[in-house]
């Protein structure tokens, strides 16, 4: 298991001051920027595309940007995000016609690749592609909105994927997204996650640094 990564989701940042707020959360101890892309089609909400990502890079954000695509279709937008400065691109297998092709497209674009599992998405999507992935992302809410409650069934799913990754011996991060707080992050880590997305728990707090420090303390 790898050292823990905390990835603040800027979905809950102040969009009118996005560069400033993103820099602030990184200075407060965030490791990666989690960047949620919603299309009002695959999920019932609309957020931001490659242009806003590019603007963050131009503003001076150099931290890894972890793009979580909740869009359908996937392939045509991949090169735009890569060019804009994405570090990792993760997608939902139900949102593309050819999962293996999309994985290849993301890798060819120079980004690391992740596959995302909704609460009801079965893990057998991993059967023939695990060796090609850099990251598996387990959703602990239904995608579309920040501020939802952690679905406890995600813990068993994390344990299963932890076992699969460990047995495979591959270098794959296990990320969790949705309802992560300083209070439940310890239990989530114990289930096998090593990469933690947190949006509202960080951005709705008065002191980002205090929340992130509390999370790290719970991670041991
Ligand atoms: C939900 C997004 C999450 C969201 C998490 O569809 O994928 O990344 O920002 O927000 P919280 O941490 O508030 O559940
Ligand atoms: Zn996300």
UniProtKB/TrEMBL annotation:
CC cofactor: a divalent metal cation; Fe(2+); Zn(2+); Mn(2+)
Keyword Cell membrane: no
Keywords, sorted A to Z: Carbohydrate metabolism, Cobalt, Isomerase, Manganese, Metal-binding, Zinc
The reaction(s) this protein catalyses: D-ribulose 5-phosphate = D-xylulose 5-phosphate
Binding positions (a divalent metal cation): 34, 36, 68, 177
Short name of any one Pfam family annotated for the protein: Ribul_P_3_epim
HAMAP family: RPE
Enzyme nomenclature, EC number: 5.1.3.1
Family membership noted in the UniProt record: Belongs to the ribulose-phosphate 3-epimerase family.
Annotated residues for binding of substrate: 9, 68, 144-147, 177-179, 199-200
Stated name of the protein: Ribulose-phosphate 3-epimerase
GO molecular function: D-ribulose-phosphate 3-epimerase activity; metal ion binding
Biological-process GO terms, alphabetical: pentose catabolic process; pentose-phosphate shunt
Biological or metabolic pathway of the protein: Carbohydrate degradation
Active site: 36, 177
UniProt remark on cofactor binding: Binds 1 divalent metal cation per subunit.
Task performed by this protein: Catalyzes the reversible epimerization of D-ribulose 5-phosphate to D-xylulose 5-phosphate.
Keyword Lipid metabolism: no
GO cellular component: cytoplasm
Class in the EC hierarchy, top level: isomerase
